[in-house]
Structures are given as C-alpha cells and as structure tokens.
Fold this sequence. Notes:
Blueprint: E1 6-8, E2 11-16, E3 21-25, H1 36-42, E4 47-51, H2 65-79, E5 84-89, H3 91-102, E6 107-113, H4 133-141, H5 152-162, H6 165-180, E7 194-199, H7 207-216, E8 220-225, H8 232-235, H9 237-258
Parallel strand pairs: 3-4, 3-5, 5-6, 6-7, 7-8
Antiparallel strand pairs: 1-2, 2-4
Keywords: Hydrolase
Protein name: Alpha/beta hydrolase
Organism: Danxiaibacter flavus
Amino acid sequence: xxxxxxxxxxxxxxxxxxxxxxxxxxxxxxxxxxxxxxxxxxxxxxxxxxxxxxxxxxxxxxxxxxxxxxxxxxxxxxxxxxxxxxxxxxxxxxxxxxxxxxxxxxxxxxxxxxxxxxxxxxxxxxxxxxxxxxxxxxxxxxxxxxxxxxxxxxxxxxxxxxxxxxxxxxxxxxxxxxxxxxxxxxxxxxxxxxxxxxxxxxxxxxxxxxxxxxxxxxxxxxxxxxxxxxxxxxxxxxxxxxxxxxxxxxxxxxxxxxx
Length: 259
C-alpha cells in the first residue's frame, strides 16, 4: 500500500478519497497494511482515513484504551470530520466503542470486527516471550483461520515489537486495560446503526462475543464469515468489503430519499 502518510501536529495518518469519512482504527499489533484492500476498495466513494494509533508513544499512564480514545477524539476534532462511519478491528474496535459512548455527535455509523470490549483471548494472556521467534509465529498464526496468512513479514513485524522491552510493557498495559474496561453495561446507549462482521473461526474474540454485542447494541446487525479468523478485512477482503458496502449504502439511502 503506497499511500502517502500525512502528518499534522502529532498526528500521522492516511487520508484517501472524497466524501463521507470512513475512519479505520487498527488493533494492538495492527498497522496501516491491515486495511490495504479496504482502502483500495472504498477510497473511490468515501474519504478513507487511517490514523496511526500511538500504541508505543504515549506515556505508560496513558497507554490504555481511554488514552487511545482521547488521541482519536483530538484527531477527529483537528481534522473536523463529521458524519463519520467509524470502523475498528480488535483493540481498535474497543477504542471506537469508548469513543462513540463519550462523543456520539460526529459518528454516523459504527462497524466492529473482532472487537474487544466484552471478552478476548489476546497476547495479554501470557507474557510475550522476547527472543522466541517460534512462539511469536504461533501467536500471529492464531489470528487467522489460515496459518499461511501469517507471512514472514507480518511475523517479523510483531517479533521486532515484542523484542523491545518497553514496547512489551506497553502491550501488556494495553491488553490489561482492554480486559478491565468491559463495556457490557453501557452498550445499550449506542444509538447509531452498527454493523458487526465476525470470523466464524475467530479464537481471539470468539463468535459468542459477536452474538453478545449484537444482543446488547440496539440497532446492530451481525454477519459471520466462514473460514475466517480475527481479521476478516485481511483474510477475506472481498466478502468483508461486500458486506460493508451494502451496510454503508443503506445508511446513505434516507438522505437520498429526502433530496
């Protein structure tokens, strides 16, 4: 993905296309590359925005789900985005949930895929073993239904992160923050149309988590994708983009009818 990474103040981000903002929030070991197919597909109809979340740049006291949400809020205000379709994967979904609960006014719709916020089996369940490449490779493979999706480049990227002591401490801080920050009692407050796209073979946030989100978020619809793990937008981008496209089109219909 050869999109320009823009910088404004302390914020680094990709912004491609014109139209309603589609803001994408990556997960704990996520990167801009996680959304390559999604950006390629939707930049022709939307302003697709991917902020680089400062997972390792915040001080340890703010290396939390709440700290990341504050960063996202400041970024949205700085760019003055409105009528946002907000999408989050894994930890990014958790950040999106906290954001919509605190600042619903600019959000038009919410899309969650493999989101934490209720329950997750993550890297935080055991200390990420520094220097153990095979351990890291198996952890990355668990993200996907097809282990071949855990390419050497992807494993190398995670291995480099977990080989840095300070980054490991921050990973654990974020993982523990996500576990502590259970949103079950607050989800009924979400008023925006919400789309849940879940891998039927997700072992990090298993299918029962998606069903619970669907039960607790009032205006939500749930789609499962077979032979798919924790990152549907990477593993089955064609089907993921089709489901998302149909959902976003529905959100645009009322405005078109009024016109």
